[in-house]
Amino acid sequence: MSNIAEIYTHTIRENFHPLFANWEPGTPIELGDYGPMDGDSFIHVGNIKDLGLNFDIRKDLTKDNKLFSSKGSAIFKLGAKGSININGMVNTKATLQIAFTSEDAVFFNAAECDFQMMRDKAKIGKVIMQRYRDHEWERAWAIVTDVVVAGATTIAISGGKTSSIVFEASGNVDRIDLADASLNLNITSQESVGYVVEAKKGLVPLIGMSKIQSTFLWVGEKYKPISLVLNHSRFSIMRNSPDIQTEESSDDIYFGQMNF
Question: Residue 123 has what pLDDT?
Answer without folding.
Answer: 95
